[in-house]
Amino acid sequence: MTTTASELIEAGRKRLLRDVERFNRRGDERIQAEELLEHAAGQELDDDDEVDAATRRKYERLLERRAKGEPIGYIRGYEMFRGMRLAVKPGAFIPRETTEFLAQQAIRRIRRRKDPIAADLATGVGGVALAIAHEVPHADVYGTDIATTALALARANAKINRLPNARFLTGSMYEPLPKRLKGTLDVIASHPPYVASHELKGLPAELIDFEPVESLTDASRDGLGLVRVLVGGAREWLKPDGWLCVEVASDLARTLRSMLVRASFREVQSTRGEYAYTRVLVGKR
What we know:
alpha/beta, Rossmann fold, seven-stranded mixed β-sheet, two-stranded antiparallel ribbon, 10 helices, 21% strand, globular
């Protein structure tokens, strides 16, 4: 008996739908099933393509992993980010679609500047830093993070995507940046961990059971410990008219806006991409 790709995808959709409460995102079970089947097959499939038994067995194993909450990025070993394929693995936070908007906000503010310098703090596997380096090829870009696993992947991703203008440094926030960069940065971007310590237990299993806890929270009571470091140091590192761009949860946007205003940033805005649950706050030195 033959089985088509569309039949397997529909069966996978129903299987994932039964476990929907485990997932961070809802309503995309069919897309997830299709991605897993194509990963099992090693190629794109049309709906009426027949799928062999070995591929079906592999697909079932992948569905089982996903149904237990394991992120698709870890299952297949990569995530797409602004058209780039980025390697990911357990021990490193998977870049989200929401953060593509953070990269966009940073890029549009420096694209036309001459020889811009950018920093992406808490860079993880390098998504924002590499997007800037790719879309603003005349920029020098620095990414920093405390997670050695993530930084090893960021450096590998820079090589895979042929982006020698991106450098990755080990350390917390501003600490590893060369001191000569003080007062020279055209943009600082960051998607810092911002979950308050007491809110961790309420996160979806996809996050709390699989991704590193230090990528979710800075262990502060309100989740804004690293955000304060970020805002507090930004004016020292930015050049005049340089921009700070920060992604936070929507319920933290008003607090962060007040922090930026108190720190004397100008043109402070709370911007939103297509996803309602995060905001990117921007402000100019």
